Automatic annotation (TrEMBL):
Protein name: Glypican-5
Matches recorded under InterPro entries: Glypican, Glypican_CS
Cell membrane listed as a keyword: yes
Keyword check for Endoplasmic reticulum: no
Family recorded in the similarity comment: Belongs to the glypican family.
């Protein structure tokens, strides 16, 4: 009553043993593919971790530098500016990690929140009445009168370029893990299970427990079983090329480190621009939002403080030079996996599974 290991000579197998063998080959095949995938998956996961750690560290550094700008140069508004600064960097982090948001909305929302503070603390430091309605009017007016000139748009452009490449790389790495996980659990067809039992266990039914399959026979069986997985070959090669392109972009025109550490300067230039155009802005705001209450003896608004470039930037650049090295190393290793799915049958037929250095092997029907 055997279904798979039918043979003319007497056998020591039963139908129940054949079923056990089918369960065994399924388990073994999953384990073999997992073992092959492990190194590749470990490398991608390692890079995701390194990338996210470096990104978070860079983000914290850029946020601290931006906060210190307000504490050293724009003291009157430092406390109130802390929340918009925090929101800006949270939005940037969410964008890079794949959230449905845009760099433009994050930056413009920040400048919307910043304008009421710049207007009431620097341009007209005598304002006492900053009601919700008046603040909201200032926020909305920012979009029309453009108090920060080209600097707000420039910041959107600079950040969009570098953050786009980082966002794409982050998503691409996650996609790689997803693909590998899916191939690990690709179901074996009944025909495949039977072919694997015939190849690996039918010799046992003849008492030939030390005879292993012939190389060519193993390759035929594995290629048949893994036809759907090896179809990924073209897409996997394209995927590696995309990773290479993104990492090159991040190291060139889309340099994340330069863009994030430049946020402080962009904001400083924007505030200086607004202060220099204070009288015109005040005239326009008075027409649109009305005149707010003033303190007696209005304070001078002539308090533009030049900001010195922080010296820690150089130290930071050195610390993050290693990120570029990690990227290069990662791509070098990933390029070695270009043929991963094309050669999966060859890899599975390697090692102990087949008989390589012997004149006798199992061809599916007999020992040859």
């Amino acid at each position: 009553d055997l279904q798979i290991c039918q043979h003319r000579t007497p056998t020591c197998c039963t139908k129940k043993m054949e079923e056990s063998y089918q369960a065994a080959v399924r388990r073994e095949r999953t384990q073999s593919i997992q073992a092959l995938n492990f190194e590749l998956k470990y490398m991608i996961v390692g890079h995701i971790t390194a990338f996210q750690e470096a990104f978070e560290s860079l983000l914290r550094f850029a946020e601290n530098r931006t906060s210190s700008l307000f504490e050293t140069a724009y003291r009157p508004m430092a406390k109130e500016a802390a929340e918009p600064v925090k929101e800006l960097f949270t939005d940037i982090s969410l964008y890079v990690l794949g959230a449905e948001t845009t760099v433009e909305s994050a930056v413009l929302r920040f400048f919307d929140s910043l304008f009421p503070l710049v207007y009431s603390r620097l341009i007209n430091p005598g304002i006492t009445d900053l009601s919700e309605d008046y603040t909201e009017c200032l926020r909305l007016t920012r979009q029309d009168i453009n108090p920060f000139g080209r600097y707000s748009k420039n910041m959107v452009t600079e950040l969009s370029k570098s953050l786009w490449a980082s966002r794409m790389l982050s998503q691409a790495l996650s996609l790689g893990i997803e693909v590998i996980n899916t191939t690990e659990h690709a179901a074996l067809t009944k025909e495949c299970s039977k072919a694997l039992v015939k190849m690996q266990y039918c010799p046992h039914c003849q008492g030939l427990t030390l005879i292993r399959p012939c190389v060519g026979y193993c390759l035929n069986v594995m290629r048949g079983c893994l036809a759907s997985v090896s179809e990924l070959d073209a897409q996997w090669r394209e995927y590696i090329s995309t990773l290479e392109y993104l990492t090159n972009e991040m190291a060139a025109s889309h340099d994340l480190e330069i863009a994030l550490t430049g946020i402080r300067n962009s904001i400083n230039e924007a505030i200086l621009h607004a202060q220099l155009n204070g009288p015109q802005l005040s005239a326009t705001v008075d027409k649109v939002c009305g005149q707010p209450k003033q303190q007696e003896g209005n304070l001078s608004s002539d308090n533009i403080v030049p900001v010195k470039e922080a010296t820690e930037t150089q130290t930071f650049a050195m610390a993050h030079a290693s990120l570029n090295n990690k990227r290069r190393e990662f791509i070098k290793n990933m390029k070695r996996s270009r043929t991963f799915y094309a050669s999966i049958a060859e890899r599975l037929c390697d090692g102990d599974l087949v008989m390589r250095d012997s004149s006798t092997c199992w061809n599916g029907e007999d020992v040859v």
